[in-house]
Amino acid sequence: MEDHGRIRVLLADDHRILREALRMVLATECEVIAEASDGEQAVATAARLKPQVVVMDIGMPGIGGLAAARRIAKAAPACKVLMLSQYDDEEYVLEALGDAGAAGYVVKTDAAAELLSAVRAVHSGRRYLSPTIAPIVLARLRNGGPSKASRTAGPTRREREVLKLIGEGATTKEVAQRLGISVKTAQAHRDNLKQKLDLRSTAAMVRYAIKHKLIRVD
Description:
Layout: E1 7-12, H1 16-26, E2 30-36, H2 39-49, E3 53-57, H3 64-75, E4 80-85, H4 90-97, E5 104-107, H5 111-123, E6 128-129, H6 134-143, H7 148-152, H8 157-167, H9 172-179, H10 183-197, H11 202-211
Parallel strand pairs: 1-2, 1-3, 3-4, 4-5, 5-6
């Protein structure tokens, strides 16, 4: 039975203490119907209980939040996924809202103050971005691509993860599986890295990963 219009929420985060804190923040307007501690559990629970909103950490064990969001979109299409992340890198945000199909993105440092507003927004069919990241993303979208500064800077956190896996011999498909992103997104990261770091081959990418100690060579 519906509880007087309270929003039915699934909380997915691998830190129990954070889940308890989020539950307390949400308690005034939401009914937390279940909790999950990893991506697979979040997908299975969302498919079974059909919550209205899933509040999900991006960096969980197993398949991770981005891959879980994509699976939830298939298993329970009516669920709105709100990503929670400690990362404010524009790559993570655009990946979550684009490729993973999330409806919103909240940075954990903003979570307590912003969470209810974010849940309300995505539940009513709107997109939501943490105030700290909204200007970054809007600037990126207005410019139609990465800023000149980000193109000439070193690799982002996500790009370093991709480089590390390539250095360990992973194919683009394996990179996608390991990071919980689509093959298309993994290939885009690979192409960006080649352009940004002027690396013309996979061998050059492996040498870069070794030189910058992204992988260990025994």
